[in-house]
Design a protein that fits this description.
globular; alpha/beta
């Protein structure tokens, strides 16, 4: 006799998650990075979790009264069993201390349900695939990869851990001031003079085309700021933590980035790398390289790091890779939601948020290729919400030496010279700042203005 089996789920764990949130609203900081509403199997728990998220996103308290009110507005309170059910959820857990454990159970059962669904989809592909077996296999692999990638719950790691791992893999390493209200200084002299440092509660946008160097400049700022004792959170949606570690080591040790990446260097360079790793390991830099990350994740992790450690600067690389809540009609509206949320993080935590951004294709169409505010992708909201907008521009990226000499025969080829164009500055003047770029060492440096 065939008995239909229910999909994997754990009703008690789902109820315990909601009960934990009703007891202690701060538990949302951890739970929200692990769970989304669709992870819940039970409809009642899912509706309650949606209400908790909605309250949190509105900066409202989470408790049985507010959740009940939010559910009543959606005409769902009676459907879940009324205030009695909310009281049952509160009484189902004695403490919120195990909220993360319950959330991981819910996440695990959701993954198993996804796996069952993927198995059905793969079976359908097998029946309907036709002659193109390679295409069918590729689609089946994509289904499984989608499940696995969704389970890669990566969080902050100290830069010490990244560098220790690098040195251990190389088999070359032996066993191994509070300024709460001050601006965060970048150690780039002209930039700090112009902005007065990165101001707390400001959202600063650093934009350029691909491969111009904005990620390198952002990491240089992270390192320089951390050297002054500032805690720095780096959300890297594009580069892995290992790639970031390589760049930090190359810049600090003055060793070619390619040599660091391939571990091809001599004894002298090795000694500099080991010394640099020791120096960098003491810096309060924390890297989160989760590739698919929502603005809710970024806000939750930033708040948690702020509560657990000292946080003075948040860097997001880069803005267009961040996902919103999925409730907007188009990408422009979604980016608007993201930039407002980043500004909210800056104000709530009283830290500067440095958000990197790509440029639109419009900059390519102009002969000068000099970026301007309208070149920001989905520019309206970015320009409006940012307190400072800076563009990184390099002529030697646009022109080869031969092209430059043909077009500008009376001007020296600007090899390694970069302009940091401060196009918007809510608190002061705008200006172009000159820097020198050393791509081989993953480093920007100050340079006198007269060089350009």
């Amino acid at each position: 006799m065939y008995v239909e089996r229910l999909p994997p789920h754990d009703e008690r764990a789902e109820e315990s998650v909601i009960g934990s949130l009703l007891i202690d609203s701060d538990a949302i900081l951890t739970v929200s990075t692990l769970l989304r509403p669709e992870d819940f199997y039970g409809e009642r728990a899912r509706w309650c979790y949606e209400a908790c998220l909605s309250l949190w996103e509105s900066n409202e308290a989470i408790n049985p009264v507010t959740v009940g009110h939010r559910l009543a507005m959606l005409e769902r309170l009676e459907l879940i069993g009324g205030p009695t059910y909310l009281g049952h959820l509160v009484n189902s857990v004695p403490t919120s201390a195990h909220a993360e454990h319950y959330a991981r159970i819910v996440s695990r059962t959701h993954t198993l349900r996804r796996l069952i669904g993927a198995a059905g989809d793969i079976a359908s592909l097998g029946y309907e695939g036709g002659d193109d077996v390679d295409r069918v296999l590729s689609q089946a692999e994509d289904l499984l990869y989608g499940i696995r990638s969704g389970q890669q719950l990566r969080d902050f790691v100290a830069i010490r851990d990244v560098l220790d791992q690098y040195l251990e893999e190389s088999a070359r390493l032996d066993s191994p001031l509070e300024q709460a209200q001050a601006p965060v200084y970048t150690s780039f002299t002209d930039l700090d003079q112009l902005l007065g440092g990165l101001q707390r509660s400001d959202m600063i946008v650093l934009a350029s085309g691909p491969s111009v160097g904005k990620s390198t400049l952002a990491l240089n700022i992270a390192r320089n700021s951390a050297q002054h004792g500032n805690g720095v959170a780096v959300f890297s949606l594009e580069m892995s933590r290992e790639q970031i570690g390589h760049r930090f080591l190359s810049s600090e040790a003055n060793v070619d980035l390619r040599a660091v990446r391939q571990r091809l260097y001599g004894d002298a360079a090795e000694r500099r790398i080991v010394t640099a790793a020791g120096t960098l390991s003491e810096l309060p830099i924390f890297v989160d390289d989760t590739p698919l990350q929502s603005i809710v994740d970024i806000r939750s992790k930033s708040r948690r790091l702020h509560m657990e450690r000292k946080l003075d600067l948040v860097i997001v690389d880069y803005l267009q890779l961040v996902h919103g809540t999925g409730r907007r009609e188009n990408r422009v509206q979604e980016v608007g939601e993201i930039t407002r949320a980043l500004k909210g993080i800056a104000r709530d935590l009283d830290v500067p948020v440095l958000a990197l951004s790509q440029l639109s294709r419009a900059v390519e169409a102009r002969p000068s290729h000099r970026p301007q505010l309208s070149d920001l992708r989905e520019s309206g909201s970015i320009e409006q919400d940012a307190d400072v907008v800076m563009f990184l521009h390099r002529e030697d990226y646009r022109y080869t030496r031969e092209e430059w000499e043909r077009q500008y025969p009376d001007r020296e080829y600007p090899r390694g010279l970069a302009e940091l164009i401060v196009a918007k500055h809510r608190h002061g003047p705008t200006e172009d700042i000159n820097l020198r770029f050393n791509g081989a060492m993953a480093r920007f440096e100050d340079t006198p203005s007269r060089e350009l």
